[in-house]
Amino acid sequence: MIRIGQVNQLPVTKETDFGVFLDAEDYGSVMLPAKFVNQPPVMGEPMDVFLFFDSDNQLAATTEVPVAQVGEWGMMKVVGINKTGAFVDWGIREKDLLIPFSEQRGRLSAGQSILVYVYTDKASGRIVGTTKFNKWLDKTPATYTRNQKVDLLIAERSQFGFKAIVNGEHWGMLFQSDVFGRLFVGKRVKGYIKQIREDGKIDVSLQKIGVAKLDELSEKILDLLRKKDGFLPLCDKSSPEEIFSVFRTSKGTFKKTIGQLYKKGYITIESGGIRLTSDQA
């Protein structure tokens, strides 16, 4: 099945000086211009190409892969504005992506870098972008469990922290108290489900919650201590940035974890770091 706005595998049917023709099934033949042919084509063998409609509304193929395909989000730069809407660079040289005025949550201006969702407009069949995400999210009930690992896409700032897209399907809220490290709109990170509230809204965290979080970090600390000959120059006096650069966790969580390891007799805490006890080495 041909998927417009996505990468397809199409077999080679003909080779010419100006390009290669590919079998696009019900769409007929589509030409891949010679400048995009990166390797010698083989008759009948498939090639990976991205399919889109050009400015003349004709099917076109390229080996370029856009920042985001249909059904995906991506950061894109606004390169122009006209009476139809804003145009963004989505990584396809032959054609910029249109964001109609009706799909803009606030007017856009040239030079802006924004998060865009790419979809196919049912009425026109055109591939377009939108900055209005609500109609594409929370369409199915959230069935996540506490501490479930998920993919997060930082979508926007809020007065409480950051709004994130969870697994490409739901809105999630990352509160400022759960933020550590550098976050920005468009960044993709791993996260965990903190809770699903009674109103159905989802709270997320960048690290596991409660005991499960500490257990996982304990294993990481012990593993690294064994790899570093039993000593790490990190302790409760280390900066949050130093701790995050090594363990991707907050200073508070790190302090609680080494406290637990100390009580269990796994480590000793020194002025300049932590040391693995002799029976754990």
Automatic annotation (TrEMBL):
**Which residue spans traverse the membrane?**
none
Residue intervals of the S1 motif domain = 69-132, 145-207
Q: Name one GO molecular function term.
A: nucleic acid binding
Gene3D superfamilies in the record: Nucleic acid-binding proteins, Winged helix-like DNA-binding domain superfamily/Winged helix DNA-binding domain
Q: What sections of the sequence does the record tag as coiled-coil?
A: none
PANTHER family assigned to the protein according to its UniProt record, in alphabetical order: CONSERVED VIRULENCE FACTOR B (PTHR37296)
What is stated as this protein's family in its record?
Belongs to the CvfB family.
The protein's name: S1 motif domain-containing protein
Give the organism the record lists.
Answer: Vibrio aerogenes CECT 7868
- What taxonomic classification does the UniProt entry list for its organism? Bacteria, Pseudomonadati, Pseudomonadota, Gammaproteobacteria, Vibrionales
